[in-house]
Amino acid sequence: MATTETDPRTIDPNLGAQIVADAREHVLYSWSVQSAINPIPVAGAEGRHFWDYDGKRYLDFASQLVNVNIGHQHPKIIQAIKDQADKLCTIGPPMANESRSQLGRMLAEVTPGDLSVSFFTNGGTEANENAVKLARLVTGRHKIIARYRSYHGATHGAVTLTGDPRRWAVEPGMAGVVRAFDPYTYRCPAGHPDPCPVCSGAPHLEEILAYEGAHTVAAIILETVTGTNGIIVPPDGYLQSVREVCDRHGILLILDEVMAGFGRTGKWFACEHWDVVPDILCVAKGINSGYVPLGAMIARGEIIDQVRDRFFPGGLTYAGHPLACASAVASIEAFREEGVVENAAAMGDYFREALGRLQERHPSIGEVRGLGCFWGIELVRDRETKEMLVPFNASGEAAAPVSRVAKAALERGLYLMTHWNVVMVVPPLTITREEAEEGIAILDDVLAIADEYY
Ligand code: PLP
Fold it and tell me: How far is the CA of 128 from the centre of ligand 1 (A)?
């Protein structure tokens, strides 16, 4: 069924209105000005679509929060959750249970190198928090290098690691976080000479380490491909260079693939594009497409061996929740059976070409960048000067005119995620060519709004 057609399954406008009224009154929304929230009351979803109580269907070009990698309501995952619920809904972290052990083993199989021991969490934030704990425990050092254009989560420590202004609210935050610049070639803070000290990795990091004292640095944490802050793909060689810096100084490399992992970039994990294995890989979102909250910090066996006889200072009541683990096991099986990662890679070729064509047609597109089903369109007022369409704003919210683009798309039945001046194209990895073409056609129409400001 095409996006614009009405879905008759759950039409009940009064119920929809009541749900929104209750949400406005009784639910505090994340990262929002509460008086401005206007949530869509979602009645149901399937595949790459969801629909509201008026029967209006939306093509989900955002995978919700870039997490529904397999698409909505996958029957195999739903069945696995039901089967697990019948057997055992919950069991504490000190126990062992079948789905938890099975998922631990499967994660060791699908992740690269000797990443083989998982610490389970309820999401990505907690995975990053515990990665920092582990790195500090293993190295006996306290500093963590994190980058500016990054998002690592919402709790005190993770939001301090976060480089974007969302961290301001908790500052001074967690002690020991040191900031580095990003390999953002389009707006390189070093002016991008050849060779570039920032975008090549080592020179910039070595300078930071010289002043900080490499012996005080426990870890460098990076989003392998930056997500929320603009889908930034590092240049070839960057990640290898960071790995070498870490090895030279006994610093652990933590890769945050909460958004970039599980097929999003067209490989199981984004670090595989550059053959780099981190010491700790943090995942969530696509691990089970969010059907039940789940994340994991996955460490190399060799790292864990160094602390096996020591007390690990971390734990969560719901770590390795049986329903979450069962859903992830089913999701990984479905990924393998249905070639989900392969489809993301093939659709990546399509998006590269289709978004490139949009760039030719729309002067307001400054840059198109991405991999697999992970694309960003950066909007500008002037290609020559790269003047941003939306000037820097601390909340990262897409102010007009980017918000106008998203709103117009929504009216046409296309749900888009935007951050600041970047429109993201991040659909479920199972998207078909037909659905992708439908979304791109709507995007083509609504980008005319951005061109008006050019
Ligand atoms: N790290 C990255 C790269 C993310 O994109 C996110 C969420 O968007 C997080 C961490 C936090 O994950 P969660 O919201 O599951 O705690």
Answer: 9
Ligand 1 proximity of 374 Cβ (cutoff 6 Å):
no
In a domain, 269, yes or no: yes
pLDDT digits (tens, 9 = 90+) for 144-185: 999 999 999 999 999 999 999 999 999 999 999 999 999 999
Rounded distance between C-alpha atoms, residue 197 and residue 175, angstroms: 27
Gap from CA of 362 to ligand 1 centroid (Å): 31
Ligand 1 atom index nearest CA of 128: 10
Domain extent for 181: 75-338
pTM score: 0.97
> What is the predicted pLDDT for the residue at 104?
98
Residue matched to tokens 């918000």: 403
Does residue 265 sit within a domain?
A: yes
Query: Across 65-176, where does the E strand assignment appear?
Result: 115-121, 143-147
275 plus 418 within the same structural domain: no
- Is there a single domain that holds both residue 417 and residue 312? no
Give me the CATH number covering residue 239.
3.40.640.10
| Global ipTM | 0.99
Is the pLDDT reported for residue 76 higher than 80?
yes
Which token pair is 352? 């590269």
Residues 296 and 104: their CA atoms lie apart, in Å, by 9
Return the SS3 of 377. strand
Distance between Cα 256 and ligand 1 center (Å):
8
